[in-house]
Design a protein that fits this description.
It is elongated, with a radius of gyration of 21 Å. The strands form 4 sheets. It has a 6-stranded mixed beta sheet with strand order 1-6-2-3-10-11. It is an alpha+beta fold and 418 residues long. Helix 1 packs parallel to helix 2 and helix 8 runs parallel beside helix 10. The chain is 24% helix and 35% strand. It folds into 2 domains: 285 residues, no CATH class; 118 residues, no CATH class. Strand 24 and strand 25 form a beta hairpin.
Length: 418
């Protein structure tokens, strides 16, 4: 049985003082029998205010907790329990007692070697030109293909950590099959039109959807049919594109993938296989639309927009699914409906041995005001999961499986028992 993770967080103008405050919280927990007593693996997420002090912070942590290996990243905002830190210097820490043979910290300079990875928590530099390829390659190095994590974010410098402060490439921790976890993706956008299929495209310009000019389909789907493209631009600024299938333009005809994407036709919401991308331009000459990805013929596509209520419902849905999978015997009434309709306030109780710890990576475009109030998104998670150790950050892109997402949240919990 995995012991409850240690966790602490703090905001303070001085980086070392913030670490000292978080460390004091962690040390207070170590005396409790249900918590990890001899941690081996730690996560650190820090706001970009502390990017310049990252090396010193890591050295301090290695001295405070000798033998603990560290992974993490910077963010424009970070998550700690039910709190979000934005626009202020802050750190969030979590330490786990996992047998050393069950995990392996890796980076470009520190390969996996012969470790048999079941899944992996990954962080990457958004400035890397080959980041999508690195994600796909790392996915193939796990037996399940499942990755979870995100791209570091920052106003000036984005960094990730794997027993060292890194820029460029991808790093993280690979986990063996004995490390029990459950992970889900939650969408933040809702379709504004029907599902369609790309039938002609050139690089990132989709010219035909369902054998019709793509621009005509776009204008019709958003209620602007007959409007000149230039006149329609102001109202199109909030429109995004949801793509089904594999990432980076790898189109698919797989019926299971198409069915997962098609789910929104009945529920009004995207499935986890949908990747949301920006609409970056119009091509009236070819009747095309330019998107921030490659969508080859055969790729499912739907135009969409950010939707707060839909995002809230979907977040509560995945939290309910996670809790029911981790501790089904303790939550006979914890359905998605019950959690969704319950007023957000005190967290649902979490029995000892249920959830040992959690990581939540959300899009930087979802945090704060998108959910209506400061820390509103994390308050929803805390209400649904209970008062569990949780860390995370607001990313420049979210990673789940072999896909790079946008406007999503990726929630992963470590089970205290199997």
């Amino acid at each position: 049985m995995m012991k409850r993770f240690l966790h602490g967080n703090a905001t303070h103008p001085d980086a070392r003082m913030a670490l000292a405050l978080a460390a004091a919280q962690i040390e207070a927990q170590r005396g409790e029998p249900q918590h990890a007593g001899a941690p081996t693996l730690g996560w650190i997420y820090l706001t970009d205010h502390f990017a310049a002090q990252a090396d010193a912070l890591l050295a301090d942590m290695q001295q405070r907790w000798p033998g603990v290996q560290w992974v993490g990243a910077s963010g424009v905002g970070i998550a700690a329990g039910g709190v979000e830190y934005f626009d202020e210097p802050a750190i969030s820490l979590m330490l786990a007692e996992i047998p050393r043979e069950q995990f392996r910290v890796f980076s470009g300079a520190r390969p996996l070697g012969g470790f048999k990875a079941h899944s992996a928590n990954v962080h990457a530099d958004p400035a890397s030109n080959d980041v999508a390829e690195l994600i796909r390659d790392m996915s193939t190095r796990t037996t399940t293909g499942y990755l979870f994590g995100g791209l570091a974010s920052g106003r000036s410098r984005a960094l990730h950590i794997a027993d060292g402060v890194l820029s460029g490439g991808l790093s993280g921790v690979a986990l063996a099959a004995d490390v029990a976890l459950v992970s889900r993706v939650t969408q933040g956008c809702q379709p504004v039109g029907p599902q369609r299929m790309v039938t002609a495209s050139e690089r990132n310009v989709v010219t035909m959807l369902d054998d019709e000019p793509a621009l005509d389909c776009l204008l019709r789907d958003v209620g602007l049919e007959g409007v000149e493209p230039r006149a329609a631009l102001p109202r199109l600024q909030q429109i995004l594109v949801g793509l089904g299938g594999a990432s980076s333009g790898a189109a698919t005809e797989d019926s299971a993938t198409r069915s997962a994407f098609d789910r929104f036709a009945h529920s009004g919401a995207f499935g986890a296989d949908t990747r949301v991308r920006h609409l970056i331009g119009l091509d009236p000459g070819r009747g095309g639309v330019a998107i921030a990805d490659v969508a080859e013929p055969g790729t499912p596509l739907a135009f969409c927009a950010r939707h707060v209520d839909a995002a809230r419902r979907d977040l509560m849905r995945i939290c309910a699914e996670v809790r029911e999978e981790v501790e089904p015997e303790t939550l006979p009434l914890a359905t998605a409906h019950a959690l969704r309709d319950a007023p957000v306030g005190e967290p649902y109780p979490t029995p000892a041995g249920g959830i040992a710890g959690a990581i939540y990576v959300s899009c930087a475009g979802r945090g704060g005001a998108h959910f209506g109030a400061p820390s509103a998104e994390l308050a929803l998670v805390r209400h649904a999961l209970g008062d569990v150790p949780l860390v995370g950050f607001f990313a420049a892109g979210e990673i789940a499986r072999a896909n790079l997402y946008g406007y999503t949240g990726v929630l992963t919990v470590f089970a205290g028992h199997r």
